[in-house]
Model the fold of this input.
Amino acid sequence: MQASIEEILSSYNESAPLAEASTIPASWYVDARIAELERLNVFSKTWQLVARTSQLQNAGDYVTTRLAGEPIVVIRGIDGVLRGFYNVCRHHAAAVVTQPCGQAQILQCPYHGWKYGLDGSLKGMPEFEGVQKFDRAENGLLPVRVETWECFVFVNLDPDAVSLHEFLGRLVQRVAPLHIGKLHYFDRRTYDIHCNWKVFVDNYLDGGYHVPHLHKGLSSVLDYKQYTIENEDRYCLQSSPMVASNEDAATGSTRKGDRAWYFWQYPNLMINCYEGYMDTNYVIPVDADHCTVIFDFYFDDVSEARRAYNAESVNVGNRVQDEDLGICEDVQRGLKSRAYAAGRLSVRREAGEQLFHRLLAADLKAQRS
Ligand code: FES
Ligand SMILES: [Fe+2]
Done:
């Protein structure tokens, strides 16, 4: 008989100390009911990265996306205010804005031509004379919350959520000295991976445990023994002193500085910094068995003269990602095996994973009691 969702949730003990803790159970990575609960309790209630501020600088600039299954548009108004809306026409539910990004003075639905202002207000409905008891003011696009931090734009579907800054907590101060706002966007890579989104996050949060084994090139520039793991309320910072290396020329020349900084913000955002470099990894669940990960690459200098260097740096990131991708898909197969139920955690390395599992368990178990 299939285990109930309550049984599955209660099979994880979030109060165990790290030395006695196990991972969340394998069933959490493969069960469609858990994936749906995550959509409702995690992705519909947390601040989610949707755009870069540089994409939304001028009046009329917009970006569309999907968040927890919801079509969303974020747009800068004539008044300069950044707003977010469900990208769902109030007439018959078509997507009002159909391009991924662009510029608009008015939002016109492609289906029957209803028009909305950049502030979401309904401006016009063709051939609607004679319709009774219809209040135009009540039929604007429905708003969602939008807030910004550094060069990032976030949306939260939960009207009762804490502010973005409260959600990020001490991450704000921790990231500030790195001046990531001075970096410029360069390129994007998107990966469709045959694994649960949490497998990708776990892999990120294992405190460098897999680096010497899986990433020989990256390993050559990190002082692995000095790797530190710092857990806060909703973020984990993994950091390592860097060493000069000729072992892998491409990695050595593109991953530099005193320290490597790897920030993870619950539930699905990673920010990785080296000197003059940042990449963000944003993990999107597709279903229990699949996720998409978007890598955005930023550099301090994106002039034409630096193009080849920056492209080489992206390639180094791409190679590391390919190494991770294979192992994540392998883990997903293992999680489905009858031979596996849950695993133990390294005290030295895997505190970040425990933080992730505890935060997730708290969200999934909330509102069920
Ligand atoms: S669905 Fe948008 S105008 Fe009809
Ligand atoms: Fe990795």
